[in-house]
Amino acid sequence: MTTTAFRGQLEGRPRPAEAAVRLLFRVAAAATVVITIGIVLALVIPSIGFFAEVPIVEFLFGTRWAPRFADASFGVLPLVTATLWTTLIALLFAVPLGLGAAVLLSEYAHWRVRKVLKPVLEVLAGIPTVVYGYFAVQFIQATVLKDWLQLQTGSFSVLAAGFVMGVMIIPTIASISEDALSAVPNALRQGSAALGANRMQTTLRVIFPAAISGIVAAVILGVSRAVGETMIVALAAGQQARLVAGPLEAGQTMTAFIAQAALGDSVVGSLEYDTLFAVGLLLFIITLAVNFVSISIVRRVRKAY
Amino acid sequence: MATYGIGRVVERTLEGRARGGEHSLRPLLFLGALWFCLFFALLFLVVLVATTLLDGAARLDLRLFTEFPASAPERAGARPAILGSLWVILATAIMAIPLGIAAAVHLEEFSNQKNWFNRFIEVNIQNLAAIPSIVYGMLTLSALALLGIANKNMVWVGALALAMLILPVIIIATREALRAVPLEIRQGSLALGATPLQTTLRNTLPAAIPGIATGTILALSRALGEAAPLLLLGGLVYLTFDPNGFASGYTTMPIQIFNWTGRPQDGFHELAAATSILLLVLLVAMNAVAIVIRNKFQKRW
Q1: Whole-complex ipTM
Q2: pLDDT digits 0-9 by tens, A230-282
Q3: Chain A residues whose beta carbon lies within 8 Å of the beta carbon of residue B48
Q4: The pLDDT of residue A304 is above 90
Q5: What is the CATH number of the domain that holds A114?
Q6: pLDDT (tens digit per residue) in A12-48
Q7: Domain count, chain B
Q8: Can you give the residue range of the structural domain that contains A291?
Q9: Is there a domain that residue A188 lies in?
Q10: Which residues on A lie below 8 Å from B192 (Cβ)?
Q11: Most Cβ neighbours (<10 Å): which of A142, A287, B55, B227?
Q12: Pairs across A and B, CB distance < 8 A
């Protein structure tokens, strides 16, 4: 028996039905690539129409956003400042609280405590964003900021929206950084303890630096969720596009503009319709850039144990 | 050579503990701060649920299920939104689950991991998972414009956007479930003469079903709470009929909450809170099912 005949036997009969089903699986996997290409085309093509009428410099650096006015103006900076404010405020709350919870769960908590508290924390990630939005505008803004703290603020503020958004992304940051902290080998903890360090010193000077790549990735994932979040900011940050100069002011974010503009019936191909996609393209580029920064940081500082 | 008594050694050790040990001031403050972080998040959760309950309890009655949206809050209910949510989730499941499982089976069981295209698909799925949900609404909006479909307010249109949104989540969960099935199961099946496809369909996939079901239910619960892409797809409408099919007009619970929260009257805010409670109860139920499946049916190999 020659080897080629043997190989033929092992491969068996051709099975066209089996090959067809496996082709279907392959097509399903390729569908995810089609979605990505679709997103890029869907955002870029209307944006080309938009930038044919509005110079890109005016779009990126203009300070007045009034696409529906008679003397229309297409400076996107007001939307960008509102997004920046809500994102920064969200991070201000989410990063320390999320990291603190992660350190507690990974370095201090008994495994039984962790088994109970971690799922409870993740409930926060499962609450619909529109419910967060309701809470932000009805309770945080109207009751806490205005009635209890007596702050000078209107019906909406980037502070209320950013704060609630921050709590929303605590589980994201906590869970990914906890994974990173837990992945640091115990030998490092034991070595540090053997040199006389207490657990606080071990955590801050040994474990944290060792897990920094995962922690940075967690924070950056939080950034991209905050930038792309729509319902909280649409309800609580306000619907007026203006340059935001302080946390108690209202302002319309990029996502809130897209949501609001899409409610009106704009004709496909009109400038109004294309405006939506130009802002969408900017949002997409920002989140994509943030993701790539995260991936490259993780690659550069990753330590393999 | 001078020797220290054992008492002196113990004394010095205790001194050390008092100065730099676990129970001196700074480590205790640090630990307190860590507990504060966790309890702040939990306190927030409690306050959120409590205020929503307080706001909405008055309107959590049968009218919510039987009445249609109306201009007067006391006569309004969320009937079309509740039915619409159910139809949209059903359509989303029909679109996303087979596609997601098929893609995961290809990537995990049949693809050559060294092939550049398969590696590209993997990176791409991770990227898709990080794209803001509203972008999927824009993609669907563009696709409709391309196909020349003017009526956006149809159940399957909203479901299409949500299906694309949760597809990466389902693929990632299914792949993990398949990976947990030990190689021996596949080898045993192949050794008995089954083809690779028979092995996958009769052995590997059935063994992974609990994991797939858990991940899929969690993905669907995310779709149930999502509103942003549907806002772009005509989901915010004033419905006076029951959504009754995949081509029917629709609105969903999250959109109804969004709409009522934005009204000035307090009566509508109560309705928004009541609908929020209903939505939260549904989500908790779905998560409970997922947890039960994971604990009861998941095999430990």
Answers
A1: 0.89
A2: 999 999 999 889 899 999 999 999 999 999 888 776 778 788 889 999 999 99
A3: 127, 131-132, 135, 139
A4: no
A5: 1.10.3720.10
A6: 677 888 889 999 999 999 999 999 999 999 999 999 9
A7: 2
A8: 73-301
A9: yes
A10: none
A11: B227
A12: 249
Verify whether the Cβ–Cβ distance A39 to B134 is below 8 Å: no
In-domain check, residue B1 = no
Q: What is the pTM of this model?
A: 0.90
Residue-range definition of the domain harbouring residue B42: 6-58
Spatial distance between the Cα atoms of A202 and A190, rounded to a whole number of angstroms: 9
Residues of A in Cβ contact (< 8 Å) with B280: 127-128, 131
Neighbours of A192 (CB within 10 A): 18
| Single-letter code of the amino acid located at B143 | A
**Closest chain B residue to A139, measured at CA:** B51
Cross-chain residue pair B232–A26, CB shorter than 8 Å = no
Return left, alpha or beta for A196; rule: phi > 0 is left, psi -120 to 50 is alpha, else beta: left
Q: Tell me how far apart the alpha carbons of residues B71 and B64 are, in angstroms, rounded to a whole number.
A: 14
Residues B73 and B162 in one domain: yes
Q: Tell me which chain A residue has its CA closest to the CA of residue B37.
A: A97
CB burial string A204-236: b at 16+ within 10 A, e below:
eebbbebbbbbbbbbbbbbbbbbbbbbbbbbbb
B103 and B200 share a domain? yes
- List the single residue in B with minimal CA-CA distance to A132: B48
Total of domains in chain A: 1
Q: Which residue of A has its CA nearest to B25?
A: A200
